[in-house]
Structure to design on (120 residues):
């Protein structure tokens, strides 16, 4: 084998980073929107979710669905990152993807909790 043929493309690691970053950004955006609106909505409509207006219930359900999608993207990013790191197809990007996808849920949930208490 020559050197060019045995060189492995880092595309897998880059794809893992892209998926992890997309998952983090979408999850953080959903948490910011929901966290900033849950306090005022609760103050205006009542404590129970069923007491809130229909538009807010729809928004919350859609944002919850976005969080589910972000979970799937993050898990995929972790799997691709591990595969890239082990196979040598973008070790550094694969490691970064694993770190971003592992930290993103904590940052997103922390942001949601902080904003929901601040906006209350």
């Amino acid at each position: 084998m020559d050197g060019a043929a045995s060189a492995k493309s880092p595309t897998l690691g880059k794809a893992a980073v892209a998926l992890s970053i997309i998952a983090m950004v979408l999850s953080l955006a959903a948490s910011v929107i929901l966290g900033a609106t849950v306090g005022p909505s609760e103050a205006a409509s009542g404590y129970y979710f069923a007491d809130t207006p229909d538009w807010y219930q729809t928004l919350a359900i859609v944002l919850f669905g976005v969080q589910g999608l972000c979970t799937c993207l993050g898990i995929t990013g972790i799997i691709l990152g591990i595969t890239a790191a082990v196979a040598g197809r973008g070790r550094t990007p694969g490691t970064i993807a694993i770190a971003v996808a592992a930290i993103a849920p904590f940052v997103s949930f922390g942001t949601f909790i902080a904003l929901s208490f601040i906006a209350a």
In short: The radius of gyration is 19 Å. The chain has one domain: 16-118. The mean pLDDT is 88. Helices lie at 3-6, 11-45, 54-87, 91-118.
